[in-house]
Design a protein that fits this description.
12 strands, UDP N-Acetylglucosamine Acyltransferase, domain 1, alpha/beta, about 20% strand, four-stranded parallel sheet
Length: about 140
Amino acid sequence: MTIPLSMRARNLYYCIVRHFPLRLLWCDLDLSTVPRGTFFAHPYGVTLQVSTKWGRGCVIRQNVTVGYRWRFDGSEPGAVIGDEVRLEAGCTVLGPVHIGDRAIIGAGAVVLQDVPPGCVAVGNPARTVTIGDSPNLEVHP
């Protein structure tokens, strides 16, 4: 997935120039752990565990939490997020789960188990659904 330059510029503005104000918007994230090409659609209320392994070209919407499930002392491994994954508004990913490439985590979903590539996870607790026969889900930031 290629993100247009105008979107990348806007993302750079929010993530770099407005980094301090993000703290005022209840965001808890260390941008040094998030790879280039990650797009924060609405960077409000985002909490990202530092030990999470991120793929390229992910889209993160508002009020997303990627965090610990059982231990809060940093000894629990982080989640592994694949390439071009979409984390929709208000979703929660907890524990050392693996989210496959081009998966979509639906709004408000609570992910406690692995999500295969190209699937959509919905609900609380999240269950996976496959969209048709196409492995090429269209991703819109």
